[in-house]
Amino acid sequence: MDFGLTDEQEQLAQAERSWLERHNPIERLRQSFDHTAATIDPAARRHAAESGLLSLLTPDIGGTHVDLAILSEAHGHAASSLPIADLAIAVWLLDSADAPQAGPAGEGELLLGVALGPEAAESSSGGLRLAGRTQPVPMAAETAGIVVVGQFHNGRGLGEAEYLAIVEGPELSEMTTLDLTRSWARADLDVTVAADNWFALPSGTVSRVRDARAVHRALDTLGAAARLLEMSVSYAGQRQQFGVPIGSFQAVKHHCSNMAIGVEAGRSALWAAALALDTAVSSSARSRAASSGVAYAKAAASEVAGTALQVHGGIGFTWEHDLHLLLRRIKVDEAMDGTVAEHRAALFTV
Fold first, then answer.
1. pTM, two decimal places
2. What are phi and psi of 98, to 5 degrees?
3. Which residue range forms the structural domain that includes residue 337?
4. For residues 185-217, b (16+ Cβ closer than 10 Å) or e, as one string?
């Protein structure tokens, strides 16, 4: 595949990286994470809304999943608490369903996460009955609600269909994870959503959302791994042993080379997956590209994290060093939206 970023996409990547460097999410996080959970930076929320990033996938903005991939990687690299891809996917779903909440959500006035939910049933009054637990949602406690998508049984005898339901202020089961840069929660649903707050979706939308969540979660992982690579190369050039930088030792050179290969190959695989989200001719081709890219990139990022810890040695274990924050983020991302084993297994079924 002959693929490269356009000039506009390169500018988008540079602009977002620059903004995140100026506002340094980790520095903000370190001011509070000893005594409270991570919160979304209000400045990041305003930036995403004013720049049109939350509405990136809507027809009005005309962005693609490749564009969103650039943002997902940048926010993973910075360890940002803003779940940019989840919010953008939620706005895209609302806009596709012509929901009135799409406008406020795209303008940042109403932050909504997105989750795959339980099977639902349409009630006789036209509402939608939801009972069960959603998949994990990042920063759910910081959002006004959740856009839940899933399958439902149509009470009019039309069989199984797909739904989008807007659940405001759901009851959350907070999750305890390794990740200190974000909070995670599942929504415990036992509600009947009013008729004006749920919408039928075209067949195949749920599968597309599942693939998109998995790809962008892996891109977040890749961003964190890329930062660990940069940190390791820099440290290897500064740390001296026997009077020379440790980066001059062949073993350390091999470690850094293997890390670079993992990051670059993972990036290529995930760009191909993001492109498939936009252009695949069939759902099976899209899902195959997504699972292959996610499985490779997550496994590679985990290897990069372990190797970065070896290159840094004892300092990498300290609370004051940023390495453990990125390693924790990678490990939690690896478990969300499909593990490496689950995506590898999916390649034999799609």
1. 0.95
2. 60, 40
3. 205-346
4. bbbebebbbeeebbbbbeeebbbbbbbbbbbbb
